[in-house]
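Example record

One chain of 521 residues, shown exactly as stored in the release files.
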Amino acid sequence: MKLSKLMGFMVVLSQIVLLTACGGDMKDTERNEVAPSPEKKIIEAQLAGSWYPASRARLAEEFKEYLARASESPMLENVMALILPHAGYRFSGPVAAYGLHQVAGKPIRRVIVMGPSHRVAMPNIVSIPAATHYETPLGEIPLDTTFIQRLRTDPHFQDVPSAVIGENSVEIQLPFLQAALGSFHLVPIYVGQLDLETAKAIAGALQRVMDNDTLLVASSDFTHYGPNYRYLPFTTNVQENLEKLDMGAIKEIERKSAAGFLQYCEKTGATVCGQDPIAILLAMLPSDAQFHLLHYDTSGRIASDFNNSVSYASMAFTGQWPAQAPDASSAQESQALSEADKKNLLQLARKTLEYVFKHNRRPTPQDLEIAVTPSMKAVMGAFVTLHKEGELRGCIGEIFPRRALYEAVMDHALNSALNDTRFSPVSEAEISGLVFEISALTPPTPVDSYQDIVLGKHGMVLAKNGRSAVFLPQVAPEQGWDIAQTLTHLSMKAGLPADAWKSGAKFTVFEAIVFSEDDQK
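Predicted structure tokens for this chain:
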């Protein structure tokens, strides 16, 4: 098989779930890391009376009408996430109702609403306001400050006070959610401008605290067409072409491919304003989550005027969020992976790479005739490292636990061989000479200082000024570095000055169960 054909096949698998250098200069962004205040702090609704009615009675009347139209659609079981539009209710309300109809009256304890920041530049971070309540004409919604505090241990989650001002993407969802669910706790997340690596890191941070009492909402309109939006890819058959363009993006969402979705938007120029929240959602979803397109419409059709038009879609994913990974002590001390599990995982890594070269597609464990045990299904982060003649030949992985260990191992066997940009791609002829090593990771835990890092035991993530980098536990001992040398190299890996670790940096540590084909000999 030609390497170019294989690399084309591997595009989707080439995105790495690491907390490495995130890029983007944050110096122009107002950021404060603030713990939730014990005093009541309310965010007041800003759109009532313009984007939606300020009258409680009028809102109730509109919701009743919208939900009645949507009630014709069949009910789904186990709705875990929705994608909903965020325009004024006249246009997007009837479409959003198809999603909210699916969760109306359900016992949902918490709702995470992720909306794009339309007005404030926030490169490679998201903002959660330091507040206790959000108030709409239907009453106050308490924020889940305990849940939010857990998220704030990840440096991507900041407080940018200006992100809330005039922003419609989160607020527009709230009265509708109140009408559909009654009482719930809210986690409002204003999403900045992300690269794929950061979107996946944020997805991992969210996924490790998700449960099946939580509904995730990604807020987004779809194509913004016309001179008002400076987007005119076609001028004839506008309604038909808009739907074709939108359905191409929705097809990537159905595939649950964050990389494919973002690549489609970039290739077509499709003006999907919430593509970053959607990318986070897609990166979070388990492989068995089921997609449902509930309703689609355009403002052009509603207003009978396609000179300018915005598209709206309501979508749902059904399934279950994975059980949370065990804590560091239980994962490391109990050695939950048996020797047979380790052998199977190493075989999965090697045989996955061999299979792709032979068949030009990613295999299943069944294709490889390898049994997947319950321990191999544990939700854990993982890295796959390749050595050739004692030298590093590739190493890629994901820190945050977001999927089954065996799935992460299979994907990163391919990524390490074919997509580690420090090396040329591995050829088929090289495979027999490679030694595969797997690091199964415990969940990351923040520490107060670099002085809490134990070399040889802890893997580490350094984060500062929107940039970050990671070392596995075995890196420092293999290189013979002390703590100062290790953190100097880690700072430089993050694209920071060599002494950046000395002040203002944040550190997260994890442990690893490391095993290699050399151990099996």
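Notes: Residues 211 and 321 are 6 Å apart (CA to CA).
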